[in-house]
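Lab notebook, page 48
Experiment: co-folding of the full assembly
Goal: obtain a model of how the components sit together before planning crosslinking
Operator: M.T.
Materials (sequences as entered):
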Amino acid sequence: MNRSGMLAALRGIVWRDLLLALRRRSDVATTVFFFAIVTSLFPLGVGPEPVVLRTIGPGVLWVAALLSCMLSLGRLFAADYLDGVLEQMVLTPEPLVMLVIGKAFAHWIVAGLPVVLLSPLLGLQFGLGSDSLGVMALSLLLGTPTLSLIGSIAAALTLGVRGSSLLIALLVLPLFIPVLIFGAGAVTSSASGIGAEAHLSLLGASLVFALAFAPWATAAALRIAVE
Amino acid sequence: MELERINWFRFSSVQAVYPLAGTLIPWFAALAMLCMTAGLYIGLFAAPTDYQQGDAYRIIFVHVPAAWMSMFLYVVMAGWAGLGLGLNARPSLMMAQAVAPTGAMFTFLALLTGALWGKPTWGTWWVWDARLTSELILLFQYLGFILLQAAIDDRRRADRASAVLALVGVVNVPIIYYSVRWWNTLHQGASVSMTATPKMAATMVTAMLLMALGFWMYSIAVTLTRMRCVILERERQTSWVQEMKVS
Amino acid sequence: MSVMGENGCGKTTLLRLLCGLTAPEHGRIYWQGRDISQLKELYFAQLTYIGHRNALKDDLTPAENLRASTHIAGSGISFTAARSALDAVGLGGNSHLLATRLLSEGQKRRAALARLWCCERPLWVLDEPFTALDAYAAQILRERLQEHVKNGGLVVLATHQEVDVEAKSVGQLRLAG
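Observation: model returned without errors.
Model output:
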């Protein structure tokens, strides 16, 4: 197992997925639009009172980010599973874990990063101050890769299963909850003056933890799915 | 039975597990009845009335042991799942499948009794405290496990995929518990807390432990029974099951 | 070694077992004296598997597909090398500029098989490689298989037809339903 081979494989898979996303730009667009639409639903449901919106803002944005990530997870491995590419991935001499990390990274660029970039704009809709907006973007920056990594486990487990998109939701939401708590909590505590450091460091720790363990679980699930 | 002489790997075959389970079930069922009756008697009659909450608090003797069981059974389920994946042993994976519904039941029971406790004591049916919220999320994890198993047609893949899920989930259980506690302490205003149980008299502790033990024995008995059903259902094409049908 | 038999008799399952994609319920599979379930990645490094499905991305050109799959398999090739492999397989001209989605079934199969011209791995496991190939392409494939075997390689393929290849040892395994 040589170092350059592993990195080449990682780069190869990221390049392929990003190229595919480029050729099918609608997929990226739908994720972003979903994020925007869901966040707009809450003021419509709750009422436009500024104080209320400022209170629920961080939670709403985080839940919307979570849901849009979740919706895009179904696509993570499904196409590869159907056209036989997944079998080839499982048969590589390079560690499957590397390929999984590559796929999760590409998924994050396509589904998570746009959410991070759009969040300050949507945060304004909820009347969040500029400091809070910064913390919001930072918390999402740390949290969305974690969501992609954890979500890849559920995506791999439900490959080819009937009703997989709903099943993914059920499997993945309990796993997302800690990230949600830390992420939304970061913004709330920064807005109330307590400071977001504790939450942000917990988010960072979750990312490291997810990076260390989730790819192994996903790789195991992929091998099981391909059997 | 000399334990050293038993060849434990004999039980990696489903055919050997079936009769073993059959002999064990009545014992555990009896123990369960014993412990639960004793626990309920002490809890309902012998333990003193709480000066703060009156007699309504007595539901704690079901609520707390049920919550303990729900978490304990998830760990047990994950243990069987890990064993099954590591040793590639089908009976272990079937045990995991058999444990899940009982675990889910106890989780639901904990939630139900939590609500029943909350109403007379604090006036609301639901409280977002650490334990109840973690129990709710645990229920989702159990349901996810059961539904994943049900959704995959290929039995081998279903077993192994849900085993991976159980292992991932068991890592999540403490994380959920602590993060929800963290979330709770931050959002002050939760003046009600179910974790702040009334001061425990010795009899109360005894009652809870007896109930917990009773629930545990019950779980084993029910799991083994369910395991036998799972075995029969899966192996119905094999010769030894056909022979049993005839005899 | 050709594995022959009717539809549904398990040729694909056998080939997948040989690759290590599925684990056998009883027994073990050995490569050069060692169990493949222990070798894992070391075994994969010596194996090229081409299954029923072409493992090609519809939105990428054959050249991009080939380049991506070789990189992911750890032995990346350049665009020039990919194009020459595609030329060898008869997909020259502008067909390497088209998205795979726009090719015919036969051309897609050729694009999938182009991997055999890229990397020299000792063991080739091919599941019905001649499907959808016209006579010309089938001839090219046969010549490539011949060349591989002459260089000391091993080919296991599932097929409906007899394959005419000269080799030190040619085996035939017929599976019954």
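Interpretation: Chain A touches chain C through 29 residues (CB under 8 Å).
Next step: discuss with group before ordering constructs.
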